[in-house]
Design goal:
231 residues; mainly alpha; Arc Repressor Mutant, subunit A; two-stranded antiparallel ribbon; 2 strands; 72% helix; 3% strand
């Protein structure tokens, strides 16, 4: 957790605090399973306990934080089964939104996605993972918005909230990161061609590769956490 004080505008304070906390959780500045220390977070974010607690409640509703009796707020830590089940749902949502977006996207929406894609490539070139991920997430949100199905969009946002931290960390593998960038280039090409089948295929492939990477990372972390066996 960083020691520097982060100033926050006073308007809609608890929402601003939730946004900052969400970033900290996604970028692993608060580790999965860690307790959210209200005193430390109040100092880091330069806010009182009241908006902080409201923000934590928002994140609990999103599935990023778990509120436990007598223990306070804990950063959610998904099991392998949780990850598999959630990615299974997310793969269907991403494929459906991609297919609909290819059919319904406006030229202005496509141009905005292309602009974000070029910014994302610049962040990738700098190896600026936080900036890359924020742009990556914005592109996926824009694709979902272009599908023009509010029920799909709401469901996507609810499910995706649980996976953001895992999707962020999946890009810490250089080869997998390069592969993800290529898949984003294919998304832009499919959208530009207004090709629903190609868009569905690349979105499905993208999520399958993310899942493979995340499961591998979870298993490696689990193996590293095991005490050494006695000879």
């Amino acid at each position: 957790m960083p020691a520097e004080v982060i100033p926050i505008p006073r308007a809609a304070l608890h929402e601003q605090v939730a946004h900052r906390l969400r970033q900290m959780l996604v970028e692993n500045r608060i580790a999965p399973g860690a307790k959210l220390n209200e005193r430390e977070l109040s100092e880091v974010l330069n806010v009182s306990r009241t908006p902080l607690r409201e923000a934590i409640k928002m994140l609990a509703a999103e599935g990023l934080v778990e509120l436990l009796p007598n223990r306070g707020a804990i950063a959610v830590e998904l099991s392998e089964a949780d990850v598999l089940n959630t990615f299974e749902v997310m793969a269907g949502l991403e494929a459906q939104s991609g297919e609909l977006a290819a059919q319904r996207i406006l030229e202005s929406e496509l141009n905005e996605i292309k602009a974000m894609h070029f910014e994302m490539l610049a962040a990738y070139t700098r190896r600026d993972l936080p900036a890359y991920y924020r742009l990556n997430s914005a592109i996926h949100s824009a694709i979902n918005a272009a599908a023009k199905n509010p029920v799909l969009l709401e469901t996507y946002n609810q499910v995706n909230a649980r996976l953001q931290a895992l999707r962020f960390r999946s890009n810490q593998n250089e080869d997998k990161w390069r592969e993800a960038v290529k898949e984003h280039e294919q998304m832009v090409a499919a959208l530009s061609a207004r090709d629903p089948a190609a868009m569905r295929a690349v979105m499905s492939q993208h999520l399958a590769h993310k899942l493979d990477t995340v499961i591998q990372q979870l298993r490696e972390a689990g193996a590293a956490a095991q005490p050494p066996s006695k000879a």
